[in-house]
Backbone:
């Protein structure tokens, strides 16, 4: 086994490998492929290979599928729960039929309902890192975090995280219960966490940062040279960076970046996440 370097995430005691495995692309998203067509067999093999390499930090959410990603992980880690750090997210409301309602829900009753459903789907009795996926504007963040904090007291959640939040929200939440991590998109295409001072806030408070889509949702891989290269049912076709004239402007930037990577004798993907 080749172990990835481990780092402390935040200041509450969680230690993770430097690279986690995002599991969003392992299931569809409301009938659309997220990052190309995925099969259960291929996805489970990917998780197993990640574990072999020391990548035992798996990131999912009840939104993915919905619910299918958590169920897939349960199959993949059967008999290996103690070897895995699971991060999951909630907040996009899912009804009792497993369908998205179109609302974001962070009230205390829904926190408990969503959490118990995730425990069942993951076939576990605790979640290592439990995130609020998106802030419910109709519910004070204090109420949501207090409810997750109760799960921590019960031993069902080990650490608390937030996703896609402002510095003000982070500070308010952190006063209720210490946060371990904030997750936000961060890549050469997306730098708002720098521009809005969020990274500075996290450093000040001793909260870890988890970057998702560090390769610009696959753009920086260089695999796509034309918008038509994306599969027909791929949800990325809806994103501006993958459309029309904007796509080709970004390709020009990518070629310049690839030149820089070649000069350093590494791949553009390696340089992007360095």
Residues:
């Amino acid at each position: 086994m080749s172990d990835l370097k481990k780092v402390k995430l935040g200041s509450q005691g969680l230690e993770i490998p430097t690279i986690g495995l995002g599991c969003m692309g392992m299931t569809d998203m409301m009938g659309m492929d997220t990052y190309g067509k995925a099969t259960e067999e291929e996805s489970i093999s990917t998780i197993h290979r990640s574990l072999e390499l020391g990548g035992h930090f798996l990131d999912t959410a009840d939104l993915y599928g919905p619910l299918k990603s958590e169920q897939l992980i349960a199959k993949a880690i059967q008999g290996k729960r103690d070897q895995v750090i699971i991060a999951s997210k909630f907040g996009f409301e899912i009804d009792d039929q497993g369908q998205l309602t179109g609302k974001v829900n962070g009230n205390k009753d829904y926190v408990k309902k969503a959490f118990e459903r995730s425990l069942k789907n993951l076939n576990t009795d605790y979640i290592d890192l439990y995130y609020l996926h998106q802030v419910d504007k109709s519910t004070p963040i204090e109420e949501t975090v207090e409810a997750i904090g109760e799960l921590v007291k019960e031993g069902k959640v080990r650490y608390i995280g937030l996703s896609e939040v402002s510095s003000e929200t982070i500070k308010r939440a952190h006063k209720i219960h210490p946060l371990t991590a904030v997750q936000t998109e961060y890549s050469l295409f997306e730098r708002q966490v720098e521009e809005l001072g969020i990274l500075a806030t996290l450093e000040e408070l001793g909260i870890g940062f988890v970057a998702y889509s560090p390769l610009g949702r696959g753009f920086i891989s260089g695999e796509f040279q034309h918008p038509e290269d994306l599969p027909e049912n791929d949800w990325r076709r809806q994103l501006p960076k993958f459309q029309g004239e904007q796509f080709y402007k970004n390709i020009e930037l990518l070629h310049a970046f690839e030149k820089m990577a070649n000069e350093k004798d590494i791949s553009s993907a390696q340089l992007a996440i360095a």
Observations:
- The radius of gyration is 19 Å.
